[in-house]
Amino acid sequence: MNGFRRSCRAIKENPEEAAAFGAQVFRLKTEVFQRAMMRGLETWELDAQLDMEGMENCLGIHEEIGAIPAELDLPAMVQQL
Question: Residue 81: its pLDDT value, please?
Fold first, then answer.
């Protein structure tokens, strides 16, 4: 999550640079990528947090079906800032 938050902030601070990079990665014209990126940029949540209750529910389901060991401790694995 820290990497995600840092990336979102960097994109918001340097949208032209981010658009040039994204256009190169996805092999699009920079203008096309930038227009798509800018459409939603103002609504980005820069301090995103994981839905811990939802994650606990998912872990519970996976534990029930035997997909993961029961001793997994989500709070010990996640550091929210």
Answer: 65
